[in-house]
Amino acid sequence: MRIALLGGTGDIGQALALRWAQDTDHEILIGSRDAGRARQKADEYVTELDSRGVDREVKGFANEMAADRADVVVLAVPAYHVRDTVEAVADRIGDADALVSPAVGMDRDESGFHYKPPGVGSVTELVAETAPEGVPVVGAFHNLSADRLANLDVELDLDTLVVGDDEDAVETVGTLADQIEGLRALSAGPAANAAEVESLTPLLINIAMENEGMHDVGVTFE
Amino acid sequence: MRIALLGGTGDIGQALALRWAQDTDHEILIGSRDAGRARQKADEYVTELDSRGVDREVKGFANEMAADRADVVVLAVPAYHVRDTVEAVADRIGDADALVSPAVGMDRDESGFHYKPPGVGSVTELVAETAPEGVPVVGAFHNLSADRLANLDVELDLDTLVVGDDEDAVETVGTLADQIEGLRALSAGPAANAAEVESLTPLLINIAMENEGMHDVGVTFE
Prior knowledge:
Two copies of one chain form a homodimer. Chain A is of the alpha/beta class. The first copy, chain A, has a single domain (2-210), classed as 3-Layer(aba) Sandwich (Rossmann fold), CATH 3.40.50.720. Chain A has nine helices and eleven strands. In chain A, the strands form two sheets. Chain A has an eight-stranded mixed β-sheet, with helices on both faces. A two-stranded antiparallel ribbon of chain A has the order 6-7. In chain A, strand 2, helix 2 and strand 3 form a beta-alpha-beta unit. The longest helix of chain A is centred in the N-terminal third of the chain and has 17 residues, at 35-51. Chain A is globular, with a radius of gyration of 16 Å. The relative contact order of chain A is 0.15. Chains A and B meet through strand 7, helix 8, helix 9 and strand 11 of A and strand 7, helix 8, helix 9 and strand 11 of B. Strand 11 of chain A pairs antiparallel with strand 11 (219-221) of chain B, so a sheet runs across the interface.
């Protein structure tokens, strides 16, 4: 399978790229608004993987090109860039098996981080509203510490939650999550349940700030 | 320490009463709007504890009386009864070390459960707004399955999150949580962060509904 990480030069994009490259045979395409930057970061990922004895090709492209070639497209961009990123690739993703949304709208005050969803209810639903008709949208990978994921020395032992209205797409993305060693996908239901999933992210940041030794805290459900 | 569980005849009240009675020496007072009902349930808890070789006194009272006698008062009532319960006991809790809010506002549609906080932002903040001045309010115990807690055969291995603005009260309630075997309290910061804590409850219910074998799902942060 071909996975495009749009904004794959950022923290969570890098983290997912390294893990998928290490743990699976999927082809990883790094996307950026700046194709040169995407190629540079892709080379860095290849070098890091190589230093760990993992011989893998990871290529960089402009977002549009990465999206055009991929079966699964991950919007690894900040919440405030989700809409323009989807619009930029809209005519390239008609055939995609899934458009994946890990972004969360948050703000911060003196108390901590707070969930601030877009008016439609959640970033996942914003993506669904913005995406071309027929492109199945899945929310996933919100609640993962990018630092923890990007450090390939760390055993994850983490859960991630998957939401979406298209069962096949949800299953595809859940499988991609499960293929990362130490990561388990759990369903949280339809896209209408995405707000409760996304609001876990500011909670995790607050827990990280308030408790000793929990800098890269994640969550497991048992 | 004396702990009053207002609405202690309900699911989460029963669960906390049994665990504290089993695992600590704190005096447990069961409160209800109906004192007879409180006494009846308290007797049931004593019988259950006795059947497990735990010889403990648990007494039932009208909510006002339970609150009056307690150091820590837990509002183990549904979200829509929080305000009237606080108002009913307001002139009895001036000396309390902590007024504890485990309730969460939720509604349900065909997709699942959704977080519906009161206008002030969270139930914890609603309690703080309603409580007499100087009574420290702490949010805690939101994300625990009452069934799992009430089944004393189950080893918990769970976390619960504590929020509040009064450090002493937060510490007191955190300690009470930690004294339940297998339960760990983590701080999520000031009361202004309560919404992110409370919204974990509908998420857990959605996960329970969507995944096999997770009926009494709880959460751990690592």
